[in-house]
Amino acid sequence: MQKHNQKEHLYKLLVIGDLGVGKTSIIKRYVHQNFSPHYRATIGVDFALKVLSWDAETVVRLQLWDIAGQERFGNMTRVYYREAMGAFIVFDVTRPATFEAVTKWKEDLDSKLVLPNGKPVPTVLLANKCDQGIDVLMNNGIKMDQFCKENGFVGWFETSAKVSGHEEGSVLLEEPILWSVKIKEKAMVWLCWSEPSRRWL
Prior knowledge:
The chain is 23% helix and 30% strand. It contains 6 helices and 9 strands, in the order βαββαβααβααββββ. The protein has helices at residues 23-32, 77-81, 96-100, 102-112, 136-139, 141-151; strands spanning 7-17, 45-55, 58-67, 86-92, 123-128, 155-158, 180-183, 187-190, 198-200.
């Protein structure tokens, strides 16, 4: 039951990237703790809500906007991006072309959305499907760090929507992700996605 003196904060976060990189699956794993192998393309935009009881006095609601991969070629992204406080750009480690598209997504985002202070929104790069034995990221960590610095990402993470759980010794979806966001110009909320393989810049 919510306490009367609890503070609630709502943050809109974008999840963008090329078609089929696993955006919807990542969100389902994070919000509902499940994974479906059946692919269904998102049409337009879809939504999910994650509620975090940050502490005894604070509830944080994350409104995740799952934007279809083909939308970058349309005229609606400006509308979808509006008032977002941060973004994830996702690529598939098994499909190099989706990594090549990352800079195009970042350019599209930065050209259409800035924070009230005029700065770009904090953006995290997610390297998805790392459960499929692709070691390119492990071998190119330094290059990835440099790529993120050059392109304005606050950090990058290896993720997998398919596997989860410490007991399996597998790569977790719930990585400690996220950036700090000011709450009413005073507090800082660290929004956590959960554990290992972190790359903060």
